[in-house]
Structure formats: structure tokens, C-alpha cells
């Protein structure tokens, strides 16, 4: 095996396991976010849901990569979650601020 | 099997360095210096392998992908710390614990977007880096809007 082939195989293995481990860590953070969303009041729940959309979006984007699982349709869902999730959080926070939301 | 063993060693080294940074509370090696050293090491490795008769482009791509794996491994300790924080700080700490949670969620957002940006650039997936960049730009507005909203709602509640 040439040095380039060795390095390529090592890179593929390392990238796969790194992305997999990162997704597991993101899932754990997502569980914490669900706990915050379920136990807190309105704005705390909004914050928890915002984090949950973030970790879900990043994990979906990672599984859509051809280097990993190549689930193509997950990419669009991930972009929607990341962008619309952030904008929705800002809009709802603004609504909670001005409204009578206690 | 040798690749899995080398991956485990690489992951252990990166995780140990990331945990060391977190424990210390600041960068062990300054970020600018670290990036310069990483780029110099990358160029030196590519140069050495090229002059040993390997193709330039596949070698560089493989090394960049190993770097992307390192970035993903380095994102794990902050995520674990954020998870512990989200479970640890409950409502028993009073109403201001919201701002602590806001900081923790900001860490999750920042780590996610930075990992997307840097890993996307290193594996030459510009769409991944672009989405990470746009998401990175939204983070301060999201955190600020949540904190601002909580402040005014809390103030209204205390006035009643």
C-alpha cells in the first residue's frame, strides 16, 4: 500500500468515527435541550427547542455528507431547521417580550 | 484494524488537548499561533510526502480530511460539558439561572457552527461551510433576543 493510499484510508476511518462521535455528543446535548424545553417556562422552552433544532440540523447535515451516510434529502431538512429555527426563535422571543406571555 | 487503532490514538490525543483547554479556561496555545503551526505542519508534511514520490493533491486532501476529523473530535468535549450543564443547573438556582442556560445553549450553537464551517472548508464542502457561516451570524441575535425577552417578561412579572 502506498503512503497516499494509507493516508486516504486513515482519513476516511478517522472522519467517519469523528463525525459519528460528534453526532452522539450532539444527541446528548439534544436530550439536555429537551429537558430544558419540557421543564422550563415559555422562554426557557423556546431556548430549549432552539438548541434542539440546532443539534438536529447539524446531525442531519453530517449524515447527508457523501463521506458518511450519503442521505441526500437530509441536507434540505438540515438547512431549513438551522435557518428557519434561528429566525423563528428571534421572532417568537420578540413576541414574548412585547406580549403578555407570563 | 490498524486504521481503527490509529483513529483511536488520534481521538485520544485531540480529546485530551481539548479537555486540557477547557480545564485551563483558556487556550493552552494561542489560537492564532496554533493555526499558523497547523498550517506549517500541513505544508511540511505535504512537501515531504510529495518529494517521497506521492501525488500532491490526494495527499493534501487526505491530510485535510484528517484535520477535519480532528475538528470534529475537538467539538465533543464542549458538547459534553454543555450537556452536563443543561442537566445540572435546574430551577432551584433562582430566576437568573436562565442566563446561565442561555450561555450554555450559546456554546452548543457556537461549537456546532464552527465545526460545520471548519470541517466543511477542510473537506472542500463549501455548502456545509456556508450554512455554518449563516447560522454563526444568527447566534448572537438569537441569544440576545432570548435574554432580552426574558428580562422584560421577568420585570413585568415582578411588578405585578
Brief sketch in words of this structure:
The complex is a heterodimer of chains A (102) and B (160). With 102 residues, chain A is an all-alpha fold. Chain A has 3 helices and no strands.
SSE class of chain B: mainly alpha
Determine the most extensive contact between two protein chains.
Answer: A-B, 59 and 63 residues
What's the mean pLDDT score of chain A?
88
What is the averaged pLDDT score of chain B?
89
Any idea how many domains of chain B? 2
* Cα gyration radius of chain A (Å): 18 Å
Going by helix content, strand content and strand pairing, the class of chain A is mainly alpha
Total helices of chain B: the number is 6
Query: Mind describing the biggest β-sheet of chain A?
Result: none
Low-confidence stretches of chain B: none
**Fraction of residues in H or I helices of chain B:** over 70%
Shape of chain A: elongated
> What is the number of domains of chain A?
1
User: What is the helix content of chain A?
Assistant: over 70%
Give the N-terminus to C-terminus distance of chain A in angstroms.
66 Å
Q: State the order of secondary-structure elements of chain A, H for helix, E for strand.
A: HHH
| Largest beta-sheet characterization of chain B | none
Unreliable segments of 5+ consecutive residues of chain A:
none
What portion of residues of chain B belong to β-strands? under 5%
| Tally of helical runs of chain A | 3
Amino acid at each position: 500500500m502506498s503512503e497516499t493510499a494509507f493516508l486516504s484510508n486513515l482519513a476516511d476511518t478517522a472522519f467517519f468515527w469523528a463525525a459519528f462521535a460528534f453526532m452522539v455528543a450532539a444527541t446528548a446535548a439534544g436530550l439536555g435541550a429537551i429537558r430544558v424545553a419540557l421543564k422550563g417556562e415559555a422562554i426557557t422552552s423556546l431556548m430549549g427547542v432552539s438548541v434542539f433544532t440546532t443539534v438536529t440540523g447539524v446531525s442531519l447535515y453530517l449524515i447527508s455528507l457523501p463521506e458518511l451516510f450519503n442521505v441526500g434529502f437530509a441536507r434540505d431538512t438540515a438547512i431549513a431547521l438551522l435557518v428557519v429555527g434561528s429566525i423563528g426563535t428571534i421572532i417568537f422571543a420578540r413576541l414574548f417580550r412585547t406580549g403578555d406571555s407570563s | 484494524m490498524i486504521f481503527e487503532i490509529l483513529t483511536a490514538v488520534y481521538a485520544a490525543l485531540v480529546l485530551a488537548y481539548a479537555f486540557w483547554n477547557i480545564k485551563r479556561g483558556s487556550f493552552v496555545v494561542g489560537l492564532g499561533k496554533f493555526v499558523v503551526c497547523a498550517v506549517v505542519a500541513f505544508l511540511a508534511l505535504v512537501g515531504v510526502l510529495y518529494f517521497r514520490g506521492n501525488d500532491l493533491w490526494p495527499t493534501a486532501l487526505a491530510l485535510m480530511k484528517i484535520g477535519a476529523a480532528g475538528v470534529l473530535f475537538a467539538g465533543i468535549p464542549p458538547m459534553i460539558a454543555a450537556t452536563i450543564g443543561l442537566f445540572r443547573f435546574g430551577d432551584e438556582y433562582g430566576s437568573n439561572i436562565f442566563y446561565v442556560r442561555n450561555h450554555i445553549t450559546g456554546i452548543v450553537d457556537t461549537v456546532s457552527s464552527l465545526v460545520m464551517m471548519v470541517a466543511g472548508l477542510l473537506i472542500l464542502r463549501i455548502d456545509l461551510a456556508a450554512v455554518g457561516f449563516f447560522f454563526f451570524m444568527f447566534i448572537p441575535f438569537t441569544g440576545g433576543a432570548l435574554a432580552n425577552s426574558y428580562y422584560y417578561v421577568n420585570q413585568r412579572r415582578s411588578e405585578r
